[in-house]
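Work package 3, deliverable 3.1, input record:
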Amino acid sequence: MKNVKRKLLSHKLMMISSMIIFIMTLLALFPPFLAPNDPNLIDITHKLQGSSSKFPLGTDHLGRCILSRLIYGTRTSLGTAFLVMGLTMMISIPLGIYAGFRGGWVDYLFMRMCDILMAFPSLLLSLALIGILGPGLGNLILAMVLVHWVFYARVIRGMVLSVKEQNFILAAKVCGTPRLVIVIKHILPAIISQVVVLVFMDIGGVVLAISSFSFLGFGIQPPGAEWGMMINDSKPFFRNAPSLMLYPGMMILIVVVAFNLFGEALRDALDLRRE
Amino acid sequence: MLELKGIKKTYLLGNSVWGKRKTVEAVKNVSLTLEERVCLGLVGKSGSGKSTLGKIILGLEKPDQGEVWFQGKNLSNLKAKELKELRRNLQVVFQDCYSSVNPRLTIGEIIAEPLRNYERLTSVQEKKKVQELLEIVGLCTEDIHKYPYQFSGGQLQRINIARAIALKPKLIIFDEAVSALDVLVQVQILNLLAQLKEEFHLSYLFISHDLQAVNYIADRLAVMYNGEIVEWLDDMEQLERLEHPVSKKLLSSVLLPYPGHGSDTKMIY
Amino acid sequence: MGQQPILTVNNLNIDVSTPYGVTRTVRDVSFKIEAGKVFGLVGESGSGKTMTCMSLLNLLPDEAKVVKGSIQFRNKDILNYSEEDMRKVRGSEIATIMQNPMTAFNPVRTIGRHFIETLRTHLPITKHQAREMAVAYLEKMDLPYPKNLLKQYPFQLSGGMLQRVMIAITMSLNPSILIADEPTTALDATNQLQILKQLNWLRKEYDTGILLVSHDLGVIAQLADEVAVMYGGYIVEKAPVFKLFNRPMHPYTRVLLESRIGLTRRKTKIVKHISVPPPNLINRENTCPFLERCEDADHTCSSYNLELKEYEKDHLVRCLKSR
């Protein structure tokens, strides 16, 4: 009974979260068609207005359409998050597999490097890197990838270690399968589902991190639209127009929760299949 | 055909940075020879170093000392290409038949793996070869498209055997290959192995803790204890002549499947 | 004989629902366990041995259900027990030892902690008393240095040692029934005999009734007083151990006994080695489970309704062709 309940629940969560993600993806892909106004069109005469037929969610302190800025912001936030995750994986997967499969001193060196890098809080390290590189979206992505790949490579190395000692890998070695083929044919398929779950569970965190950096002014530069930056912009007008801060905050919340739930549902689904 | 000279293997336990690390001598100074078409049974308790020895012969572990000679060549100073060519004659079947096959591949792909590494076959030839192998080990040719979870332990072990004989090797190492199976299936697999040995002129190194199974299939016997070979027996008919206390203990702890042998009356208590 | 059995299983039927249909895992199984006697259950994997054991402890998985039959323990039906009553019975009255002793222990707790906690959940004693009791029982099991053993962790012991610790813990509660599900299968040959000796000692010393489950005829032959052969969910033959081994009547029992290797050398004759999968028990009719593999079977077999018949005194067989 418990099993059935859990399955159903996980099913429902999966439906809801994947719907949200689908809508968000649409928003990110086609903002010009979906946004009612130009997100960067400044019109001081209409500043800080409430909702109207022209501006469904009102305008900000420079008279820009909030809804349009939110929609364009989806593209920046999600796009950047996926770019960061993608680049991170491009480094982490090969390196993690190499360290785990090769073992020996390569692995030892890799682990010590991880220890050193992970001794610093990642946010601090990213901030320091951005400080060196200078603010801007490109540098933000670079800094986040440079800081985060270590963590994922380490996790992937662990997955490889648990698969590596399975007999079918040994049998493959004995019957002469080249190492690269073993990795591609036996190891990668065995860990890829776990990696996908990991990516989805963590992408919410990346969205949050990007917004934080933009809030601090290190990410995308004005006039580009981004949720964290929108919150920062609305700080002085909090008393008169709290909705200005509320809308982008809600967007961040929804996206982060949706991705976390999706990741968890995905993990449950994969676990069930294994049973 | 196979000769081991003074093989030694020590494992490090834990990684303490300070002071000396603890070590375990898994194999100490083992030498043995194995002639063609002979099945050598290697018995011993778990932890006696039997499996490590098997892995060293297969090249999955490197010995700290000693040499492995196979077909007249020293495996440790061969070029990679020669080594690969020699290794095709050396195959293995493990105890755990479930983890020995990749659950994501079909039976056809599993058995074809060694063929793809050594022989250039068209897909039609490959399929024909795999079907032949399936028939040899007593499975249906239709099984080629099935996945491992659709098979029982005994059938999976047959699939592992099919993969091991695919390249027509000279020596196959069986690491407790029948220990996890039901008795009836054990006998079937042992009979299959005996038949294959005659048919393809194979040599076996049969590693097991079960003297009954070893006695059934082996021509010669080596008893291993604490990383050393403590006794040899060239003629399996003379099993009672085993002298070393370890061998005697192994012999006396065989559970004979006949009531009255050692039950109630004979049991010490 | 003449003794009152402690545990009586009557007409037990267990169904397991799978995604492919309902598996008739256990069918019409009946047996008795008497004090100080060992009842052996032989069969291949998938024959329903383990499910039978689980039902005796009321520990069947969610998918499995007892559809018919009763399990009488001291004249009360266990199947009607509440979870609370069952917990009291489990361990103290009906105990189990399992195939893999490693999984029965929590790896981060010492042997002593396992032992003492088990004792104290069932008995009203102090920690100190429990420790002394643990040492005494480990000594009885012939385990060396029991005091040191209590401080060790499960991974520091070999499989055979752990299994003996397991038996010691089980026996300290002095249960009247011990269910040993493949107690030696995961162990080395030298340890197997040791365990069997200890089980033998137990039933003599404490008059414990033992249900010994194994696929290994060697184990059964050494210890069991009465044996039942299971195949495809049915008990196909049941007899005292000597009768069964000397005069097997069911074709499956005969195949099983013919496959004994013991310490004889392999004969030149090679039995045909086409592998036959175990019988498919999903939605199966009440026909003989051994039909497909039986050499004696003919057209009368498929229409025959299965029944366990007494051919000689105490020798029951479920086959039309038994000879």
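The mean pLDDT of chain B is 87.
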